[in-house]
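Quick board copy: two proteins, each given as sequence then C-alpha cells.
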Amino acid sequence: MEITFRAVEECDLSLIQNWIKTNEFAKKWYYKNVVPTIKSLHKKIIERRVVPQFNSYLMLIDNLPIGYIQSYAIEGWGAWSNKIKIFNNTVGLDYFIGDINYLHKGYGPQIIMEFINTLKAQGFDYVSISPDPDNIVNRKCCEKCGLTFQKIVNTPYKNSKNREAIYLKKL
C-alpha cells in the first residue's frame, strides 16, 4: 500500500463535496452536519492558497483519492489561534477520510504519520490536531500518532464546533 498526497485542484471540489454528503462521519465531525456548496469549498480550499503556509491535499492510497487533509501555520488565524496555541512555530492539521470503504480500518494513523513526515521538512517545530472532544475515534487516532492531549478550549466559531481538544507533537 502506497500513501501519497497531491494538491487539491478545483476539479476535486465536487469529489470532496460528495464525500461529505455521503459519509455521515465526515459530515458530522468535519462539517457539523452541513453539506457545503462548491462555492464555499472553493473559498475554504482554493482561495486560501494565497495564505502563507496553507496547503490542501487529497489523501491517496495506491493513487486512489480517499480523503482530504490540510495544513496551516497556527499563528495568524486571530481569536482561534490565540485560544489553541501552545508553542510558536506550530502547524495545524485538519483531515477526514471521505471514501467510506476506508473508514475504521486503521488507515487514519498511517496516513497522518506519513503526512507528519512530510511536514518535518517545512521547518515547523510542532504539529497540532484539534478534534471535537466528543470525537473519540479522532482522539484515539491522535494518540496512536504520538500526539499528546494538552487541553480542551472553547472556540470562537460560528456554525461550527464549540470546543476543541488540543493534541500536540514535537517534530
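And the next:
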Amino acid sequence: MAASSAGLGFGIAEAVAKQGGSVSMASRTQSSIEKAAKTLSDTHGARTKGYVMDATDPASISAWIDATVRDFGRIDGLVVNAGGPPPGKFDKFTDEEWAKGFNLTLMSAVRMIRGVLPTMRSQGSGSIVTITSSSIKEPIDILLLSNVFRSGVVSLVKSLSPDLAKEGIRINNLVPGQIDTDRVRANDEYASTAQGLPIGEIQKQRYQAIPMGRYGTIQEFGEVGAFLLSDSARYITGATLFVDGGKSKTVW
C-alpha cells in the first residue's frame, strides 16, 4: 500500500488487515509509517511492515517493491497512491511545477505498476488498484494539475487491463469523492481563503452538493478498496469505481 501512513491509503490497509491480510505499507516518513504499521498489527493482529518510499523517486519505488517480495514472498495486490499536486490556477504554474506534477502523479503510477508486474506474472495472479480523483470526469477548478495527470492514470489503467487480464492480473481505478481526509480539509481551507468565506460555510455548500449530505469516511473508502483487491472482485477489471455519496452526475 503506497502512501498508507494516513488517509485513503491507510483506510485500505486497515480494511485488508481486518480481513486477515498481510500488508506492506509505504510512506515518505519512517516514524509515521512504522507507527501506522504497528497500529494495524496491534489492533488487528495482522502481519504488517512499514517501509520508507518516495513516490517521486524511481529507485525508492523499486527498493520498496524488492523489499516487499523479500519479506513477504509474494505480491497479491498493489495500491497505487501518492500525495496530490498543489492547487492553483493555470497562469501561476511554471514548467517545473508541471514536471513535478507529472512525476508525482502519473509516473509514480507507471513505475509502481511496472515494478510489481514481474512478480504478479510469475504468480499468474494479482490485483492493482489506483487511487485517483473525481476530477477525471468532472474537472475541479482549483486542482488543474490533478485534473490533467490523474486522467492519464485512468487511461493507463484502461489501456493495460485487456492484456493483463489474459495473465490473471486485474487492474482498476478507485475514485474518492469528498472523503474526510487531511487533503480535503486543506482544500476546504484553500477555498475558504480564496472566497473569503468561513470554512464552515464552504463545507456546508459542499455537503449540499452530495446527495448523502456528508463527507465519506476513510473506513468506508477503505472497505471498497479492499473489495477490489480481493477475490470477491475477481470478474472486475478495467473499471473505474466511484465512492462519492452519489455526487458525480456523469452517466458513464
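Board note added afterward: Residues 230 and 249 are 28 Å apart (CA to CA).
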